[in-house]
Structure formats: C-alpha cells, structure tokens
User: Fold these one by one.
Assistant:
Number 1:
Amino acid sequence: QSALTQPASVSGSPGQSITISCTGTNSDVGGYDYVSWYKQHPGKAPKVMIYDVSNRPSGVSNRFSGSKSGNTASLTISGLQAEDEADYYCSSYTRGSTLVFGGGTKLTVL
Amino acid sequence: QLQLQESGPGLVEPSETLSLMCSVSGGSISDSSSYWGWIRQPPGRGLEWIGSIFYTGRTYYSPSLKSRVTISVDTSKNRFSLKLSSVTAADTAVYYCARLGPYFRSIDFWGQGTLVTVSS
C-alpha cells in the first residue's frame, strides 16, 4: 500500500484559514469514511484532531474541521493561531483491513 | 485515564530481532471496542503503521512489514508486544504503542514513544 499524498508544507498568517489535502484511492480514502487527522509537535506523540472524516474529539477546537470528496480528504483550520504550528498527518482505513498514513504536512504560522 | 508505556532495548544490532512491550494501565486490554497497535517514525520522517491486534489475538499487519513482524497480546498482564526480525538501519525509529478504535478510525491514546537505534 502506498502512503496517502499530502503537501509537504503549508503556511498562513494568524487569523487566516488553511486547508491541507490528503489524497488516496478508492481502496482507502474514497472507499471508507474512516479518515483521521493528527497533529504532532516535535518530540511529542501525535494527537487526534479529526476522526471519521469530520468528527472532532471532545476538547478539540471547533476551528478544526474535516471533509472528504471522492479520494481526497481535507483538514481546514480557521482563525489560524501560533499554537497551530505543527506537523499534520492524515490516515485512512484500507480495503485490506490495514491503516495507511499520509506523508505529513508541516504547517507554518507566519 | 488510559495510559500506555513502551519498554525495551534502545539499541539493537543489525540482523537481530527488535522486541518491545507496551503496558496498558487505566483500562482493560480486553475492551471489545479497542484495538492495540504499533506505529513508528524514523528520525525526521513521517508516521508508519506497523500493525494492530485485538484482544482475541487477531492481528493486522502492514503489507510492507508483514514478513518480519509479530504482534502478540497477554491479557493476563494487560500488555502487548512487538517483534521485528532481521532489522537494518532503516528500522531505526521512534516506536509508539497506541490504542485504536474499530476500523482504526481513531488513535486516541499513545505511549510516549521509545527510540530504537539499529547499529553495531
């Protein structure tokens, strides 16, 4: 299985909105609504921000939202804040009953 | 609050077998809504799912690592383990153990991670 495709980096200014894409195939992203998004600070374990495409776990800011169209899922962060600067990873359940991650996107808050 | 803690050698010689254990506290590894898994991250690189296990012993492995990976569970001791054979420098990474939901839809609890270096 190949890793899901994410942009290597995105950036935005405080207060702006950014979107990170995550492209797979109909065997993973397109075939199941089991896409998750994780935020990771350097040296720390990842934290789930979105699961099941668009659901936010308790305690996650409503500035984070997720969506999916076809084989591409997206994470949108609105009202960008300095604390949002981190690496973001998507993941998807696959037809083979496995899990695949995206390559990761480094978000820089300008 | 569920807590996971990895343990094992931080240095493994090439061609040997990497062995790690994950101890689970604050909850039961026999919870029917939980899957338990291993994820790794080479230095400066992205996350890679290694495999997962259900408390019954049913396993799921990454196709790219399947031939070298064994994950097992010990419900009596509330822990699960990873064995990765024939390691090379490419297996040097931070290894995380974690709890996953059904269909691996959410990894909501992670261990702190342990760095394993493959070197002679």
Number 2:
Amino acid sequence: DQQVKQNSPSLSVQEGRISILNCDYTNSMFDYFLWYKKYPAEGPTFLISISSIKDKNEDGRFTVFLNKSAKHLSLHIVPSQPGDSAVYFCAASASGTYKYIFGTGTRLKVLA
Amino acid sequence: DADVTQTPRNRITKTGKRIMLECSQTKGHDRMYWYRQDPGLGLRLIYYSFDVKDINKGEISDGYSVSRQAQAKFSLSLESAIPNQTALYFCATSDAGTISDTQYFGPGTRLTVL
C-alpha cells in the first residue's frame, strides 16, 4: 500500500509560469516532509522541507504548503525555469523513525 | 569531491552471481541508508544503519544483506542476483545530530542482472 502518492507522473509548464507538484499521504503519524529534485545520472538532492507544525515554508522560488487535514502537500515553483526540469520526489517521515517513505516522483519539464 | 560516493556506477551481472555495491561518505554522518529506484515505484528503503553496530531492515530487504564496516562505509550485497533486482541503487546518509534529518544521496549505481 503506497503511503505517499504522487499521482501526476509528469507535468509540463511554460518558462516563467508557476509549477505545482502535488503529494498525498495516508499515514497520520507522518510529521516531517521533504522534497527532493533528481537530475538524470545523479542522486536526489534536497530541495525544501516542512514540519507538521507549519503549513507553509518558503525558500526563494520554492514554497511547500502542507494541509494536514487533507493529508496533502504541494510544491510551488515560481517562476519556473528550464533548469528546474527534473524528477521531483516527496518524502514523509514520522518522528523518531529517522527513515522516509518516498513517493513515486513527478517529472517536471519546463518549456523555454 | 563528492561527499557520498558509490562504486561501481554501473554493473552488469548474471543471474546467480554474488555482487557487492559499496558506499563511502566523508560527511561524518552516523546514519546510512540503501534504496532502490524502479520506474513507477519511486525510492524504496532496503536497509539502514544508525551506527556501526546497528543494522535494520527496510521495506524490501529480502535477497539483500549489508555490512557497516566503519562509520564511513556501508556495503550492500546481493548473495545470488536475480533479474528483478535490476534497478538503480542509491546510498544516502543523514546526521544524527540534527532534528531535520535531511538525507544526502550518492550518485547511484545502475545494476543490470541478466
């Protein structure tokens, strides 16, 4: 049973517009969430995180929103740039476990 | 220099062969992890280790074993490789001293079992 779901395998966005990547989770014990970006032939790299005590976290062009009641988080990239084209994974963890459950990834393509 | 390195980067082997994937890190982190990535399935945890004397099974440990030779080294072994172990394998580390526990990944090993 997939505890972390990214239902959109791919997304195409025009350069300069907003990219919105979505992630849903089922385990109510999850209280820490991360987004990773992955380029081909490289390992995933950390992008941004959010704790369940917050509903929003911003870092430059990247903002993550958390809706605990809906068990949903989203990553907003504004403005989108061609260099943002990559696979994005969301991951969730429960306090004290120190391990993450990853979603299946969304491939973002930003068109110039 | 990369903080988390994996060797080999690519490997082709035959069914039934024993193979070892190695991971080394210079980040000084206590926690190390092995994941595999399959198309449409994301990253799944195979084994993880919180220190040299601590080894734990992840979601999909069957058919794999690990060895934590030192704080900086964590190896993954396939005792008798089978074709459905063809995947991209990633090692990751995290710092036990931080609350956020962000994981840092190596570049991956692409394993093909014929």
